[in-house]
Design brief:
This protein is an alpha+beta fold. The protein has helices spanning 2-48, 124-127, 148-169, 224-241, 253-267, and strands spanning 54-60, 63-69, 75-85, 90-98, 103-110, 188-195, 199-208, 211-219.
């Protein structure tokens, strides 16, 4: 019995020491990786924006960005990470935006798209199609043959993430969406259309007594899994909050935004 207890104590000590060493190694490794990523971000900003003399990391609503300023303290460039859901899962990318709100660089951080098809988002020729665009431009670029879902995810994702980054860090480079005063809208049933992952999301909105009382989603060509999730949650939130701008359904950002856009378009009539 004593021998069993002795072995148990030894095993417990070994496990404790191993766990401590592993935790220390992980902490050191994480710091090294973070320092490397930060160094790469600064080098990228310096290459893209030679006028930058000062860097500053900022965080707004959980989103982080590195901002570059010139010697007159003018905003010269913003570098921030964006993400979208492609065919194979999450696609992460870096967006570099200049002081006028134009995209100057799109680089892919990671993805799980199909090799030889969706993986072509890494090709410079594909990424260059986005350079020079502002959030008000058309983001329909030449699709990757055989990778429609990946292509649409990138087009919508880059535009949506660019807009979110500018709203968070761009100051007066972009204005937030104007809220609609629902109380001024006459009673009636209004139809509108919006674009999710794909165009063609249609809704019918009922207004009674200055309030939205019902939203029926009539059509949509987005991926059923995500579209149905947004369809079940977003109209309910809009009615509860009496606002067109509500939280998107988790994992269904594009479909959610498409429904919100369709409701907004209906009410603007």
């Amino acid at each position: 019995m004593k021998e069993v207890l002795r072995l148990a104590v030894i095993l417990m000590v070994i496990c404790a020491v191993s766990a401590g060493v592993l935790a220390y190694t992980n902490d050191v490794t994480t710091k090294i990786i973070e320092e490397r990523i930060q160094k790469e971000k600064i080098e990228l900003l310096q290459r893209l924006f030679p006028a930058v003399t000062r860097f500053e990391d900022q965080e707004v609503d959980g989103r982080t960005a590195t901002l570059g300023y010139d010697d007159q303290d003018n905003l010269v460039g913003i570098l921030a990470e964006g993400k979208t859901n492609g065919y194979g899962g999450e696609i992460r990318f870096n967006l570099a935006i200049d002081g006028e709100g134009k995209l100057v660089s799109l680089t892919i951080i990671s993805h799980s798209e199909t090799a030889g098809l969706g993986s072509k988002i890494e090709d410079e020729a594909y990424r260059q199609q986005y350079v020079g665009k502002t959030v008000n431009d058309d983001f329909d670029v030449d699709n990757i043959s055989g990778a429609t879902i990946t292509s649409l995810a990138m087009e919508n994702g880059v535009q949506a993430e660019m807009e979110a980054i500018l709203l968070a860090f761009g100051g007066d480079l972009i204005q937030g969406p104007a809220e609609i005063d629902i109380t001024t809208i006459p009673d009636g049933v209004y139809t509108g259309e919006g674009k999710g992952l794909k165009p063609g999301i249609k809704v019918e909105v009922t207004v009674e007594g200055g309030k939205i009382t019902n939203i029926e989603v009539l059509a949509g060509e987005d991926t059923p899994e995500y579209f149905n999730q947004a369809k079940a949650q977003v109209p309910k939130r809009i009615i509860e909050e009496q606002s067109v701008q509500v939280d998107a359904a988790s994992g269904a950002t594009f479909s959610s935004k498409g429904i919100m856009e369709a409701v907004k378009n209906a009410l603007q009539q």
